Amino acid sequence: MSWNSFGRVLRFTTWGESHGPALGAVVDGCPPGLDLDEQQIQPFLDARRPGQSKYTTQRKEPDRVKILSGAFEGRTTGTPISLMIENTDQRSKDYSEIAQTYRPGHADYAYDAKYGFRDYRGGGRSSARETAARVAAGAVARLVIPEVSITAYVCELGGDAIDRDAINLSEIGNNPFFCPDAWAAKRWEALVDEARKNGSSLGAVVECVATGVRAGWGAPIYAKLDADIAAGMMGINAVKGVEIGDGFAAARLSGEENADAMRPGEDGPEFAANHAGGTAGGISTGQPVVCRVAFKPTSSILTPVPSITRDGEAADVRTKGRHDPCVGIRGVPVVEAMMALVLADHKLLHRAQCGG
Amino acid sequence: MSWNSFGRVLRFTTWGESHGPALGAVVDGCPPGLDLDEQQIQPFLDARRPGQSKYTTQRKEPDRVKILSGAFEGRTTGTPISLMIENTDQRSKDYSEIAQTYRPGHADYAYDAKYGFRDYRGGGRSSARETAARVAAGAVARLVIPEVSITAYVCELGGDAIDRDAINLSEIGNNPFFCPDAWAAKRWEALVDEARKNGSSLGAVVECVATGVRAGWGAPIYAKLDADIAAGMMGINAVKGVEIGDGFAAARLSGEENADAMRPGEDGPEFAANHAGGTAGGISTGQPVVCRVAFKPTSSILTPVPSITRDGEAADVRTKGRHDPCVGIRGVPVVEAMMALVLADHKLLHRAQCGG
Amino acid sequence: MSWNSFGRVLRFTTWGESHGPALGAVVDGCPPGLDLDEQQIQPFLDARRPGQSKYTTQRKEPDRVKILSGAFEGRTTGTPISLMIENTDQRSKDYSEIAQTYRPGHADYAYDAKYGFRDYRGGGRSSARETAARVAAGAVARLVIPEVSITAYVCELGGDAIDRDAINLSEIGNNPFFCPDAWAAKRWEALVDEARKNGSSLGAVVECVATGVRAGWGAPIYAKLDADIAAGMMGINAVKGVEIGDGFAAARLSGEENADAMRPGEDGPEFAANHAGGTAGGISTGQPVVCRVAFKPTSSILTPVPSITRDGEAADVRTKGRHDPCVGIRGVPVVEAMMALVLADHKLLHRAQCGG
Amino acid sequence: MSWNSFGRVLRFTTWGESHGPALGAVVDGCPPGLDLDEQQIQPFLDARRPGQSKYTTQRKEPDRVKILSGAFEGRTTGTPISLMIENTDQRSKDYSEIAQTYRPGHADYAYDAKYGFRDYRGGGRSSARETAARVAAGAVARLVIPEVSITAYVCELGGDAIDRDAINLSEIGNNPFFCPDAWAAKRWEALVDEARKNGSSLGAVVECVATGVRAGWGAPIYAKLDADIAAGMMGINAVKGVEIGDGFAAARLSGEENADAMRPGEDGPEFAANHAGGTAGGISTGQPVVCRVAFKPTSSILTPVPSITRDGEAADVRTKGRHDPCVGIRGVPVVEAMMALVLADHKLLHRAQCGG
To answer: In which pathway does it act (chains A, B, C, D) (predicted)?
Structure first.
């Protein structure tokens, strides 16, 4: 039940702060015999890596992962896999302001209220850099579910949604926004650019689709696939909402509209729709598992916001320094990683109880 | 990590099927010395109880709770509290149709795909009757957090939202919809009545507000208060979405709009707004903790929906029998219970690590 | 991580006090499709049942188990199995003495020190009656490992050990001591009779052997089969020691003496000895899994022992009433149950990670 | 429930293999604000360090610990503490023999049976080097319980026990055996020397005493202090038995002999004896918590033992290379560490449920 661990059978723990020497993850319970070396993890870290375009933070981190245990001669051994990523661009700067003043929307005040003090350098443990460790862990999880294909993308940025009819997954890599709609990507360039120049920030919605999930993963009642996805996604920095399938929109449909009719198929039922997002009663149905995740706008903005100091004095805060104008963008690889981790865990859980 | 348990320090397990002899919950880790007898649990079960108006299922269940352990001379002892609710209105009927045919939107097919067979009577373990056990457990959790006040209500039904300026919490008990807006409640009567008459169903959104939560509960990274709330709520039957604070709407705000400015207060900061819903970095800030939960429309409808039989043959399904035209309504006490369970657990967790 | 639960994938929770209305267990994670009805559980409860000879407590309890959930048409469904045993012989008596005075060797003082007060009736939660719930859970666990045969017996009573050359497992049921050596059983009659008449009590050592455990169950490091067996056994009332294989005697052997030589066999290695007790590195080797469990003498004795009252006054305690002169005897079915629960759990755990 | 984690609230996970680049531990749930730097951990690692006398393995490892996260300005922050120890003396040698042949008593065969293959270099994950990570974690745990004093020592080696009347804790550091009896230490020199020269090995019993544990830590039923100590100790390499208090000897006492009489004291009861080893009903009584741990003789010996190869062929095994003639000796700091980890965890658990 530790606080920095996630998962039931395939369980991982992350550690590390933004400005400490390193951060990492320990992945426990991974099946033995899977091909694993750094090259299988690195591409996912590269996708999340900062400083790749002007639309993300300018912190430069190579984010090179090292495997410290759990693999031998290129294969997983079944023992814990320790992954480490060294911090290299911990820009030495004066943190006195951030140390003494609470940045609104950040965890500064909450950490102090809880722990009495905090590692204030770059947000410490609450920094989005922690997600690098999850992305590394997620790359291991993918090895457990080779039959599943997971793709996430930004489907809405600053309130501007993609055209669902224009979704082309091969576009995702062609723009700096993980956007599957080329036209929307164009519009977002202007949006993010303006936010960046104004020192403002934008929110985003990330959608994630997992195909190839067989029917039967998940479990009643508190281990529903939906519940674990919700927990995993809501644990990502800046996330404030999670939907499965139609989510909140389903609450506006009638029972007839929301019904996913079935008809006999080759291989289990064929469904006429997927309002449910691939689960029923918390268990996968064989349809694509679909979730959407809402990222709030980055809390770090140049506009001064009234706040208080540690001593309880009034103080306006203006967050200088490097930051993402829209944290949702780099959230895409993190959402994918969490989906992989949940599904891999449930594959093993299902095998434990039901075999096969 | 069991599948039917929830919580970390205050941990509960539920058991039972819709048409078995009983259902119940075991609550473990409850502090000793709290006043507890059946009378403190029963009102919450009564609020959830079916058959109280024509807008909910006509199943008649007294839902009388019995405390089988963990209390002595009217006080909790610190040992596990076993709560049992006997099923009495297990109407004897012919289940042959439901046994052989998968009801779309229900867990029938998924359970069979997972377990190879299922207790089909009334949905078995996937029946919303299970939530009675959580409501009972939630009543115990409330004893752990007497300083916290938790109120949930339906804020949208069938796509018709309440007027936020008209919210009057004292109205919640005056209508069969747990609606805090008297005018909306009037409109919903017609809406639900029509759905009921047509054998259709409606979705709903439930909002839950917890006041009195001190700053400092919650924890990084995977035990964020937000993550546990999301997991708890998403584990409720028919729930497809969860938001904290502004949730998905926050993704459409700019950083300036979304900032919750602080100024010095008597007792910690005073906040100018609560877009964040009472948490930062997964830890409570002292503001009200606010979440919203989307319930899909009841899957049981009278309109025939194409489906398949266990043998893979095509078959139209029309769900006769007793059902809620809008399961979101009776979800209100369940949402409150899950909020109480999460907060009570985090109060104890915080005390474990940080004292106080 | 709840305090009254045990197991990782096959996880059970027990609840109940000696003099409450009932006690029970919830078994979660059981594979679906196993034949289960009360008749499969009852024989194990009958073996543990008190009042069957003059050598055990005279409390009369039918210990009838009821299955409240998790089985349908005689088979497990994969959902939690709720088992309940009603208390019937809660002899109404005056507990004022035990309520005010701490019985040495009992948990009275420790419970008060922890919880501030306690359910003093018959020991409350710390009563050995709780083990009835484990025995019921253990009967379910046995269904998960039909290929494994588990037999426990008393191998030493009041310091008088069985003759290992005289072990005959078919003798176990022929005497009231679960003793596999007919001559020792004879001697023990006199021993226990004398202790009973003197109001004294005796300790015992229970040995448990599980055959049919395939190589490969268990896991590094903190989930070693040995570690889980140790935890399970040490959680039984009155147990003060646990050994795997030669245990403490192994500490007196040389490396040569302790080596379990192997030679090629039909089906994996054949071992020349089993000093290790069936595990290496915490993982089963295919040899019989062997443990020994030390039960202290029953703390309830008629000889007055100096003690204190709740108010801190000196008071001699003489425990009247019904009690087992040697709790180790009725510990035999409990040890078997815990072994079954650990092995069944590890079978499923192994399947989760390694398949097959 | 991960396999390489231990603890409930203060939970740690270890990772690493004997011949990988490093090994380490992540300690989660540690209270904030405790003074922590490498200097507080290093002495415990130094005590466990190999190569310090001719009576332990000649592998030379500086075992320098690095704190990678969870501390800031010399204090714990409440976030996970990542500890890493680099392996430096991974002697490059030919492992072809050990790779192909199973060493009796080692985990070689069991690992292969479980995982299908293994990291055979130096025992991989099953190497006693893993215990360095626990010792580091234990040093952190000690910070949580400054009021508790934990001392372990070898009380029996090769069957030769110390004289209990000659115990002098200040002698422990004066000999290479952690022996509190100077005369016994003298005798053991000859014993171990002979074993070492003959390529044989010896077992040992380690006793651990924790004073300053207040009454009330621990919990029913499966989280008994005794059960967690048993699990923790039995998870140490080469351990085959655990006792609390008198342990197996208690099974040979009468109820009168085993009774720990109480009389009124200044500060709770004073006890006339401590047969129970400081617990009752799984909860501490305020007496010293005492356990004894049996270590088998090192399995690596020079005498050839019949075994088999991976291909199932017969092969005699003679374990060359560096090894401890008695692993129990270096087990002393590991036993202390596990005791600290269990007690610290239960202190926090107690605070969670009962405050104070």
So the answer is: Metabolic intermediate biosynthesis; chorismate biosynthesis; chorismate from D-erythrose 4-phosphate and phosphoenolpyruvate: step 7/7
A130: Cβ contacts below 8 Å, ≥ 6 apart = A14, A16, A18, A23, A237, B220, B221
List the binding residues of C for NADP(+): 48, 54
Q: Give the pLDDT mean for D351-355.
A: 96
Chain D neighbors of C217, CB-CB under 8 A? 114
Residue D36: burial class (beta carbons within 10 Å; 0-12, 13-18, 19+): buried
Q: Which of D144, D139, D146 is nearest to D32 (CA)?
A: D144
DSSP A30: P
Q: Which of helix, strand or coil describes residue A154?
A: strand
CA distance A337 to chain C (A): 20
Q: Which residues of chain C have a CB within 8 Å of the CB of A216?
A: none
Tokens of D325: 């003639």
Instruction: Please report, for chain D, the start and end positions of each structural domain, with discontinuous segments joined by +.
Output: 5-354
For chain B, the farthest-separated pair of C-alpha atoms sits apart, in whole angstroms, at 68
What is the model's pTM? Answer: 0.97
- To the nearest 10 degrees (0 to 180), the angle between helices D225-234 and C225-234 is 160
Interface of D with B in 163-222 (CB under 8 A): 220
Q: Cβ of C351 and A355 within 8 Å? A: yes
Whole-angstrom distance, CA of residue D244 vs CA of residue C338: 19
Helix residue spans in chain C (DSSP H): 38-48, 96-100, 108-115, 130-144, 182-197, 225-234, 255-258, 327-354
Residues of chain A numbered 112-131 and touching chain D (CB < 8 Å): 114-119, 121, 124-125
Is residue B125 classed as helix, strand or coil in its secondary structure?
A: helix
The chain D residue lying nearest A12, using CA atoms, is D2
Q: Could you read off the pLDDT of B167-176 as tens digits, one per residue? A: 999 999 999 9
User: Which ipTM score applies to this complex?
Assistant: 0.97
Nearest to B296 by CA among B267, B340, B331, B323: B331
Which one of 2.40.50.140, 2.60.40.10, 3.60.150.10, 3.30.2350.10 gives the CATH number of domain A5-354? 3.60.150.10
Closest to C140 in 3D by CA, of C233, C78, C88 = C78
At residue D50, what is the residue type?
P
Q: What is the pLDDT of residues C288-331, one digit of tens each?
A: 999 999 999 999 999 999 999 999 999 999 887 778 899 999 99
What backbone torsions phi and psi does residue A102 show, to the nearest 5 degrees?
-85, 125
Q: Is residue C156 within 8 Å of C105, Cβ to Cβ?
A: no
Mean pLDDT to the nearest integer, D114-124: 93
Question: Which chain D positions have a beta carbon within 8 Å of C109's beta carbon?
Answer: 215, 262, 269, 280, 285
